[in-house]
Amino acid sequence: MEHSRPSLPLPMVLWRGFTGRCPHCGQGRVLFAYLRVMPHCLSCGEKLGHIRADDGPAYFTLFAVAHVVVPGALWVEQAWSPPLAPFVAATMAAALMLIGILLPAFKGATVALMWRLRLKGDEHQGDGLPSD
């Protein structure tokens, strides 16, 4: 049985998802095993497992990480001109660490947004061509 969803404020729903909490109650977890969506909230019972975020969280994470790592790398390069190999290794390590931290957060926020909009992830817009 699906709960009737109150019209919760979008920023609250996104924050709950970003912090890994259930978009409905804010108490239970939205993810388990790093990136798996909980079948339902253990706190309020809200069904979440049917929501498919697909590639959206990966794109959002890449966008955010690139906007942090690239300017930082350019600044370090201009300020200190470090040796190439350690510089590349440190930059890649920083990018991988940020990806590891932000990917579940963006997945939770995407699931929360889709929950708020009552989407499942299997919707399609059609091919745009008129039918015969």
> Largest sheet at a glance?
2 strands, antiparallel
String of helices and strands: HEEHH
Q: Cα distance, first to last residue?
A: 39 Å
What's the alpha carbon Rg, rounded to whole Å? 19 Å
**What is the helix fraction of residues, given as a range?**
40-55%
Structural class: mainly alpha
Which strand order spans the largest sheet, edge to edge or round the barrel?
Answer: 1-2
Q: Based on CA inertia axes, which overall geometry fits?
A: elongated
Number of domains: 1
Question: Count of helices?
Answer: 3
Spans of at least 5 consecutive residues with low confidence: none
Number-wise, the strands total 2
Beta-strand share of residues: under 5%
- Mean pLDDT across all amino acids: 92
Quick structural summary:
By secondary structure, the chain is mainly alpha-helical. About 50% of the residues lie in helices and about 5% in strands.
